[in-house]
Prior knowledge:
It holds the Pfam family BPD_transp_1. The protein is mostly helical. The protein contains 15 helices and 2 strands.
Amino acid sequence: MTGSLYPASGLAARWQKLMILVKQIANPRRLVIGIPYLWLLIFFALPFFIVFKISFAEYARSLPPYTSLFEFEDGGMTINIYFNNFKRLFLDGLSSEPAENYWQLLKDVFEQNLYLKSYLHSLSMALYTTVLCILVGYPLAWAIAHSKPSSRNILLLLVILPSWTSFLIRIYALMGILSDKGILNNTLLWLGVIDEPIAILRTNTAVLTGMVYAYLPFMVLPIYNAIIKLDYTCVEAAQDLGAKPFTIFRRVMFPLTLNGVIAGSMLVFIPTVGEYVIPELLGASDNLLIGGVLSLEFFNNRDWPMASALAVIMLIILIVPIIAFHRYQRRSLAN
């Protein structure tokens, strides 16, 4: 004699709930909303989980070149977690002799540790690039926003136009401009400004120039969008109250366009921290940024666990400004 595991009424109720859930999931509106989340899951969360897992492995002469996180032997499972990569990242090159004080200890760490030194250099270069993009991009966006409507689209097109060509070709063209026998040095020699070529290529100046050139449109467009939406009645009210032009800009215009500046800063700062191509082509070989160190660990040393640990720490560093920007937006909307 056989019987049902659940009563007929229980099966019907569960089947009805399942069909309701399927209809809710199959709702076109929910499917459209779920596409970005699916995209983030496949192309961000899943790769990050893989990299995060590899960062707790150890280098091994095998394929793939790292130890397994899980090992199954004799019907049991062993979890192998190693923290040596993160230990190397923070303590590599640290002297065993005691330091005089904490400042001397920090100085020794950042001078002798290649990884921390490259992190610090990358963050400083990204910060300089962001500040320069603001100084150049804000007046440019202001000029475009206050130009004639007939020429405004042309000016915006000129800002975006370089992005239509290959990124690598643009950097190679910049190498030709900044080299010792390039257009810039030849022009300065012809004008009599200099007597001999200036060594610009393979310096931090060349790297900053390349980064500002490549990422300036990402600063101009958000600021332009904020300026276009600016409420000029506030500016007129400040003028009626006798405020000077600089005071109007500092107290009225800039705060009202700050969202555009912050958005542009995020679009510039985050990718420049991990930039690899520009420092590789325009910078010196002995002045590595974190992108170059990652490339060396992955492809030259084939130390995937160490490279994964570097990538995880870099991502954690980049999450900080994203969270700060998100909180600022929420506070602005609340006000």
